[in-house]
Amino acid sequence: MSLISREKLVVIIAFACIAILVAFQVFMRPALNRSSRLKQVIPEKKALLSELQSKSRQYSSLRAQLEQIRSKIKNQQKDKKILSSIEQIQKDCGLTRNVANVTPSTIPISDEYEKTNVEVKYGAVTLDQIVQFLLKIESSDLLIGIKSMEIKRGLQNPALLDTVIQLVSSSNIEQD
What is the C-alpha to C-alpha distance for residues 21 and 157, in angstroms, rounded to an integer? Predict the structure, then answer.
Protein backbone atom coordinates (compact mmCIF):
# COMPACT_ATOMS: atom_id res chain seq x y z
CA MET A 1 0.00 0.00 0.00
CA SER A 2 1.37 3.21 -1.10
CA LEU A 3 0.57 6.54 0.47
CA ILE A 4 0.42 9.68 -1.42
CA SER A 5 2.43 12.62 -0.24
CA ARG A 6 -0.59 14.32 1.35
CA GLU A 7 -1.38 11.23 3.39
CA LYS A 8 2.26 10.95 4.41
CA LEU A 9 2.18 14.54 5.62
CA VAL A 10 -0.99 13.89 7.66
CA VAL A 11 0.54 10.77 9.23
CA ILE A 12 3.76 12.65 10.08
CA ILE A 13 1.80 15.53 11.61
CA ALA A 14 -0.35 13.06 13.59
CA PHE A 15 2.78 11.31 14.93
CA ALA A 16 4.33 14.68 15.78
CA CYS A 17 1.17 15.72 17.66
CA ILE A 18 1.07 12.44 19.53
CA ALA A 19 4.79 12.75 20.36
CA ILE A 20 4.27 16.30 21.63
CA LEU A 21 1.30 15.19 23.79
CA VAL A 22 3.28 12.25 25.20
CA ALA A 23 6.30 14.49 25.89
CA PHE A 24 4.04 17.02 27.61
CA GLN A 25 2.41 14.33 29.76
CA VAL A 26 5.73 12.68 30.67
CA PHE A 27 8.00 15.69 31.14
CA MET A 28 6.13 18.99 31.33
CA ARG A 29 3.08 18.13 33.41
CA PRO A 30 5.06 16.73 36.40
CA ALA A 31 7.39 19.74 36.26
CA LEU A 32 4.44 22.15 36.26
CA ASN A 33 2.78 20.27 39.15
CA ARG A 34 6.03 20.35 41.12
CA SER A 35 6.42 24.05 40.43
CA SER A 36 2.90 24.83 41.70
CA ARG A 37 3.47 22.73 44.83
CA LEU A 38 6.73 24.59 45.51
CA LYS A 39 4.94 27.92 45.14
CA GLN A 40 2.55 26.78 47.88
CA VAL A 41 5.31 25.41 50.14
CA ILE A 42 7.66 28.42 49.92
CA PRO A 43 5.51 30.77 52.09
CA GLU A 44 5.04 28.00 54.66
CA LYS A 45 8.78 27.35 54.82
CA LYS A 46 9.52 31.09 55.04
CA ALA A 47 7.15 31.36 58.00
CA LEU A 48 8.82 28.34 59.60
CA LEU A 49 12.26 29.86 59.00
CA SER A 50 11.15 33.14 60.57
CA GLU A 51 9.80 31.26 63.59
CA LEU A 52 13.04 29.29 63.93
CA GLN A 53 15.10 32.48 63.75
CA SER A 54 12.92 34.03 66.45
CA LYS A 55 13.31 30.95 68.65
CA SER A 56 17.05 30.99 68.02
CA ARG A 57 17.31 34.62 69.18
CA GLN A 58 15.18 33.80 72.23
CA TYR A 59 17.37 30.78 73.01
CA SER A 60 20.53 32.88 72.69
CA SER A 61 19.06 35.50 75.01
CA LEU A 62 18.09 32.88 77.60
CA ARG A 63 21.52 31.28 77.31
CA ALA A 64 23.20 34.66 77.95
CA GLN A 65 20.92 35.25 80.96
CA LEU A 66 21.80 31.81 82.32
CA GLU A 67 25.50 32.57 81.98
CA GLN A 68 24.99 35.89 83.80
CA ILE A 69 23.19 34.10 86.62
CA ARG A 70 25.93 31.48 86.84
CA SER A 71 28.64 34.14 87.00
CA LYS A 72 26.65 36.04 89.64
CA ILE A 73 26.37 32.86 91.69
CA LYS A 74 30.12 32.25 91.42
CA ASN A 75 30.96 35.84 92.38
CA GLN A 76 28.43 35.76 95.20
CA GLN A 77 30.01 32.63 96.61
CA LYS A 78 33.43 34.26 96.77
CA ASP A 79 32.34 37.60 98.21
CA LYS A 80 29.51 37.16 100.72
CA LYS A 81 26.72 34.99 101.98
CA ILE A 82 23.03 35.81 101.94
CA LEU A 83 22.72 36.16 105.73
CA SER A 84 25.50 38.71 106.04
CA SER A 85 24.05 40.63 103.09
CA ILE A 86 20.58 40.69 104.63
CA GLU A 87 22.05 41.82 107.94
CA GLN A 88 23.90 44.69 106.25
CA ILE A 89 20.77 45.78 104.36
CA GLN A 90 18.79 45.67 107.62
CA LYS A 91 21.37 47.98 109.23
CA ASP A 92 21.18 50.37 106.27
CA CYS A 93 17.37 50.50 106.53
CA GLY A 94 17.28 50.81 110.33
CA LEU A 95 15.53 47.49 110.80
CA THR A 96 18.05 45.77 113.09
CA ARG A 97 16.12 46.43 116.31
CA ASN A 98 12.81 45.37 114.68
CA VAL A 99 13.92 41.85 113.75
CA ALA A 100 11.79 39.31 115.58
CA ASN A 101 13.15 36.15 113.98
CA VAL A 102 15.47 35.01 111.18
CA THR A 103 15.13 31.42 109.97
CA PRO A 104 17.56 30.22 107.28
CA SER A 105 17.35 26.86 105.52
CA THR A 106 19.49 25.42 102.74
CA ILE A 107 18.37 22.86 100.18
CA PRO A 108 20.58 21.33 97.45
CA ILE A 109 18.97 21.77 94.04
CA SER A 110 21.64 19.98 91.98
CA ASP A 111 25.15 18.62 92.31
CA GLU A 112 26.57 22.14 91.91
CA TYR A 113 24.00 24.49 93.40
CA GLU A 114 22.01 24.95 96.58
CA LYS A 115 19.06 27.16 97.40
CA THR A 116 18.98 29.15 100.62
CA ASN A 117 15.63 30.27 101.98
CA VAL A 118 15.61 32.92 104.69
CA GLU A 119 12.45 33.87 106.52
CA VAL A 120 12.74 37.23 108.30
CA LYS A 121 10.04 38.41 110.72
CA TYR A 122 9.85 42.08 111.61
CA GLY A 123 7.72 43.64 114.29
CA ALA A 124 6.55 47.27 114.47
CA VAL A 125 8.10 48.59 111.25
CA THR A 126 6.95 51.36 108.94
CA LEU A 127 5.93 50.85 105.34
CA ASP A 128 8.81 53.09 104.27
CA GLN A 129 11.33 50.83 106.03
CA ILE A 130 9.88 47.76 104.31
CA VAL A 131 9.97 49.44 100.90
CA GLN A 132 13.59 50.55 101.42
CA PHE A 133 14.55 47.03 102.47
CA LEU A 134 12.86 45.46 99.44
CA LEU A 135 14.43 47.97 97.03
CA LYS A 136 17.90 47.31 98.43
CA ILE A 137 17.36 43.55 98.21
CA GLU A 138 16.28 43.81 94.56
CA SER A 139 19.10 46.18 93.61
CA SER A 140 21.87 44.28 95.37
CA ASP A 141 24.64 42.63 93.34
CA LEU A 142 23.83 39.30 94.93
CA LEU A 143 21.33 36.89 93.53
CA ILE A 144 18.66 37.39 96.21
CA GLY A 145 14.98 37.29 95.36
CA ILE A 146 11.80 37.89 97.29
CA LYS A 147 9.80 34.69 97.42
CA SER A 148 6.85 35.92 99.46
CA MET A 149 5.79 38.64 101.82
CA GLU A 150 3.07 38.90 104.42
CA ILE A 151 2.15 42.25 105.99
CA LYS A 152 -0.23 42.74 108.92
CA ARG A 153 -1.10 45.77 110.99
CA GLY A 154 0.57 45.83 114.34
CA LEU A 155 -1.47 44.76 117.36
CA GLN A 156 -0.18 47.49 119.67
CA ASN A 157 0.11 50.33 117.14
CA PRO A 158 -1.98 50.08 113.92
CA ALA A 159 0.33 52.62 112.19
CA LEU A 160 3.19 50.12 112.42
CA LEU A 161 3.33 46.81 110.58
CA ASP A 162 4.32 43.25 111.40
CA THR A 163 5.96 41.67 108.35
CA VAL A 164 7.21 38.26 107.31
CA ILE A 165 9.45 38.27 104.24
CA GLN A 166 10.79 35.10 102.64
CA LEU A 167 13.97 35.59 100.63
CA VAL A 168 15.66 33.06 98.40
CA SER A 169 19.16 32.83 96.96
CA SER A 170 21.16 30.32 94.96
CA SER A 171 24.83 29.58 95.43
CA ASN A 172 27.50 27.04 94.60
CA ILE A 173 27.79 24.12 96.95
CA GLU A 174 31.03 24.50 98.82
CA GLN A 175 33.41 21.68 97.99
CA ASP A 176 35.85 20.68 100.73
Answer: 100
Measured in whole angstroms, how far is the alpha carbon of residue 49 from the centre of its chain? 20
CB 136 within 8 A of CB 93: yes
Cα distance between residue 40 and residue 57, in whole Å: 27
142: phi then psi, degrees, rounded to nearest 5 = -80, 160
Q: Give the CA count within 13 Å in the CB-facing half-sphere of 11.
A: 7
- pLDDT tens for each residue of 111-156: 888 888 999 999 889 899 999 999 998 888 777 888 999 999 877 8
Nearest one of 139, 147, 152 to 165, comparing CA atoms: 147
Read off the pLDDT of residues 71-82 as tens digits, 9 standing for 90 and up. Answer: 877 776 544 577
